[in-house]
């Protein structure tokens, strides 16, 4: 919409003709804008809607503004028509005509009659309650610009919200209904499963949201910061977005339940296998503990616990859920059981390792003494009486029951050190003679020497 010129001295004929041409173009632009506003889909929706809240308040003001806009436009049209008639009186306008035209085109000679109600409801007006007001054409255009901008802003904002949210809410509601039917088919119902409760809450929220969006769209409009253009802003979709995410979470939960229904038997078989392996491992640990206590002396052997009866009971419950198609209850129970069963198998293996540790130590000592004996034999010292004595002493301790691991380990170390000493000097005890057995000249092999 255009802006009229300013007041000034008496206009000449050329100035009048230019002003009339400009005002004619301005009149056409204003008329086009008003007709577009009149035909705007958002305005038609607002006229037929049962509005509430801030939208109702703003639409009441906007309706008054639109009514006043047409009154202003009619007055503007009358003033332009009068000016054209005066100019058309004669080809060369007289001074009296020019004075009249100057007053009409630049002065405050345009009178606008309006109702008290329309004037009072239009928020941008001053002089509330006046039955008529006088304007210059420039003031009239400025007033129309303000009313048009505020009315269009309100109409565009409401239309934008109505265009964006109700359709999306309806699509989400349709998806919600499909999800509800699927949830019921797998036993996910309100009061029985958290996802069922979530579906009920989402349903209530979407129903309420749609009702509010339809009756009060401006409650869901976020104006753009610093923007003065009509309709500057965006619909507030935060509530919709939150419920859409919540529904997606529920769908994932139901998909998990469906997956449970599809592979429940295979998972139960795997669970039974894991628990069976745990039981066998514990049984092996108990058997090994008896063997350790019989074969190893002076050793603390940890106690082996019994089979996990609680897990077996929960496994039986899971099988019961499957038989009765209670998939929503089976899903979390299977997840919990799978983790507990793996933990139980790990605990059984650790128990077996702890119980058999003394046997492993004995086996390591046996392997070490045999390795040293083979090494001694390769150097031709296998028949040395001193080494034979040390070897036989260690071997008796390691191959007797119960075996004292601490004493046996010391015997192995003594044999190891004697063998190391002889290998380093390159001769047997007999060849070196009495008193030459060790570095101290005592005839004894020194206790020095490191395990190899």
Q: What's the short story on this structure?
A:
The protein has 452 residues and is mainly α.
Structure keywords:
single chain, 452 residues, mainly alpha, 4 domains, two-stranded antiparallel ribbon, two-stranded antiparallel sheet, 13 helices, 6 strands, 71% helix, elongated, disordered C terminus
Radius of gyration: 50 Å
- SSE ordering: HHHHEHEHHEEHEHHHEHH
**How does the major sheet shape up?**
2 strands, antiparallel
Measured by DSSP, the beta-strand proportion falls in under 5%
| Helix run count | 13
Total beta strands: 6
- Report low-confidence residues grouped into runs of 5 or more: 1-7, 124-128, 432-452
Count up the domains.
4
Structural class: mainly alpha
The average pLDDT score comes to: 81
Q: Portion of residues in helices?
A: over 70%
Shape: elongated
Termini Cα gap: 102 Å
Strand order of the largest sheet: 1-2
Describe the structure.
- The chain is 71% helix and 4% strand.
- The protein starts with 12 loop residues before the first helix and ends in a 20-residue tail after the last helix.
- The protein has a two-stranded antiparallel sheet with strand order 1-2. A two-stranded antiparallel ribbon has the order 3-4.
- The longest helix has 58 residues, at 238-295.
- The protein has helices at residues 13-39, 41-48, 53-87, 95-106, 116-121, 137-185, 194-215, 238-295, 309-323, 327-378, 385-398, 405-425, 429-432; strands at residues 110-113, 132-135, 221-223, 233-235, 296-297, 403-404.
- The chain is elongated.
- The protein has 13 helices and six strands.
- The protein has four domains: 13-158; 163-224 and 232-258; 268-355; 379-432.
- The chain is mainly α and 452 residues long.
- Residues 1-7, 124-128 and 432-452 have low confidence and may be disordered.
């Amino acid at each position: 919409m255009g802006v009229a010129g300013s007041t000034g001295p008496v206009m000449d004929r050329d100035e009048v003709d230019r002003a009339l041409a400009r005002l004619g173009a301005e009149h056409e632009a204003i008329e086009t804008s008003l007709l577009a506003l009149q035909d705007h889909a958002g305005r038609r929706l607002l006229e037929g809607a049962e509005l509430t809240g801030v939208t109702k308040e703003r639409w009441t003001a906007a309706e008054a503004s639109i009514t006043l806009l047409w009154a202003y436009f009619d007055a503007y049209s009358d003033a332009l028509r009068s000016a054209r008639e005066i100019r058309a009186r004669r080809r060369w306008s007289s001074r009296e005509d020019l004075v009249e035209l100057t007053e009409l085109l630049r002065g405050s000679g345009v009178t606008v009659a309006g109702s008290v109600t329309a004037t009072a409801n239009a928020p941008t007006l001053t002089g509330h309650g006046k039955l008529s007001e006088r304007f210059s054409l420039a003031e009239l255009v400025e007033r129309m610009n303000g009313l048009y901008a505020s009315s269009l802003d309100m109409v565009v904002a409401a239309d934008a919200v109505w265009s964006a949210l109700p359709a999306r809410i309806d699509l989400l509601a349709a998806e919600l209904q499909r999800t509800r039917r699927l949830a019921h088919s797998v036993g996910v119902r309100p009061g029985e499963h958290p996802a069922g409760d979530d579906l009920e809450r989402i349903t209530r929220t979407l129903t309420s949201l749609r009702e509010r969006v339809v009756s009060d769209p401006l409650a869901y409009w976020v104006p753009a910061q610093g923007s003065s253009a009509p309709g500057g802003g965006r619909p507030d979709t935060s509530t919709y977005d939150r419920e859409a995410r919540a529904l997606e979470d529920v769908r994932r939960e139901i998909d998990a339940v469906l997956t449970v229904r599809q592979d429940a038997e295979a998972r139960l078989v795997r669970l039974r296998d894991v628990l069976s392996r745990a039981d066998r491992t514990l049984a092996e640990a108990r058997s090994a503990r008896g063997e350790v206590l019989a074969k190893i002396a002076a050793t603390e052997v940890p106690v082996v616990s019994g089979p996990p009866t609680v897990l077996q009971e929960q496994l039986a419950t899971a099988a019961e859920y499957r038989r009765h198609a209670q998939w929503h209850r089976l899903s979390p129970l299977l997840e919990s059981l799978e983790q507990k069963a793996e933990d139980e198998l790990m605990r059984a293996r650790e128990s077996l390792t702890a119980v058999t540790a003394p046997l492993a130590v004995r086996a390591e000592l046996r392997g070490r003494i045999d390795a040293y004996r083979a090494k001694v034999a390769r150097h031709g010292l296998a028949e040395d009486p001193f080494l034979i004595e040390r070897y036989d002493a260690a071997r008796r301790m390691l191959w007797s029951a119960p075996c004292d691991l601490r004493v046996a380990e010391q015997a192995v170390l003594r044999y190891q050190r004697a063998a190391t000493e002889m290998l380093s000097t390159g001769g047997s005890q007999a060849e070196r003679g009495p008193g030459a057995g060790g570095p101290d000249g005592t005839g004894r092999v020194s206790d020095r020497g490191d395990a190899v």
